[in-house]
């Protein structure tokens, strides 16, 4: 199968996964947010919370597995993983807009991930990251198809890992600051207080610092 055909097949698969993800969220919001999603998060039963964590983990495992069985080498496996992840994420928001007319704007806050703590940020932020992931993935795949690279070097890996960690920090810093500000004497009190968490402002400066090494790594790959 040619690279272009693979791109189409993986894109269709990832779009379908995005719709599946959206369907689950539509059900959850109908149950817990019948008047529309907003912060603070509504407390949910432990069984549902555990199921959600397992579902998120299963989604990542599925995308990693897709990359592993599609790619011929380390570069391609990584590229197909981030490509499918990005398409899945973008179409998740597209389907949410179609089905729920949400978000109202690309600056609306969303709960992005729950492992190991809640990640929160404006919808625009993960969409920007997804576009960069697609750009990097296609660059890697074309280089591999031309037999010009089989793996990333240490510098490129370090740039990507550093940028990713900074971006994760930008999504979790508000939650950690709020958690540290709580004067709770026991676990139940802590959980009750965290359920009142309302994000105030997103640190776009930290986000930009995280984007820079990823862009530079993509440029280095392109110039190979």
Can you walk me through this structure?
This protein is mainly alpha-helical and 224 residues long. It has one domain. The protein contains seven helices and two strands, in the order H-H-H-E-E-H-H-H-H. Helix 2 crosses helix 3. It starts with a helix and ends with a helix. The relative contact order is 0.12.
Structural class: mainly alpha
The total count of helices amounts to: 7
Structural Rg: 19 Å
What quaternary form is this? single chain
Helix and strand sequence: HHHEEHHHH
Could you tell me the number of beta strands?
2
Largest sheet: 2 strands, antiparallel
Helix content: over 70%
- Strand residues, percent: under 5%
Measured distance between first and last alpha carbons: 25 Å
Strand order of the largest sheet: 1-2
The backbone outline, from C-alpha atoms, is globular
Task: Enumerate the spans where pLDDT stays under 50 for 5 or more consecutive residues.
Answer: none
Number of domains: 1
How much is the average pLDDT? 89
């Amino acid at each position: 199968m040619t690279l272009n055909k693979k791109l189409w097949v993986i894109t269709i698969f990832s779009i379908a996964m995005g719709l599946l993800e959206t369907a689950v969220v539509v059900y959850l919001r109908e149950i817990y947010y019948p008047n529309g999603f907003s912060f603070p998060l509504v407390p949910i039963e432990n069984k549902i919370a555990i199921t959600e964590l397992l579902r998120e983990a299963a989604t990542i495992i599925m995308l990693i597995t897709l990359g592993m069985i599609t790619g011929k080498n380390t570069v391609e496996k990584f590229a197909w993983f981030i490509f499918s992840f990005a398409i899945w994420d973008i179409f998740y928001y597209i389907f949410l807009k179609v089905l729920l007319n949400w978000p109202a704007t690309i600056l609306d806050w969303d709960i992005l991930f729950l492992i190991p703590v809640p990640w929160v940020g404006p919808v625009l932020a993960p969409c920007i990251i997804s576009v960069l992931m697609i750009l990097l993935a296609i660059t890697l795949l074309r280089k591999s198809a031309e037999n010009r690279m089989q793996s990333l070097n240490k510098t490129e890996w370090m740039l990507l890992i550093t940028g990713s960690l900074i971006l994760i920090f930008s999504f979790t810093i508000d939650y950690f600051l709020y958690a540290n500000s709580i004067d709770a004497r026991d676990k139940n009190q802590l959980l009750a207080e965290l359920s009142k968490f309302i994000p105030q402002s997103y640190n776009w400066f930290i986000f930009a610092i995280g984007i820079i090494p990823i862009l530079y790594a993509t440029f280095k790959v392109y110039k190979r």
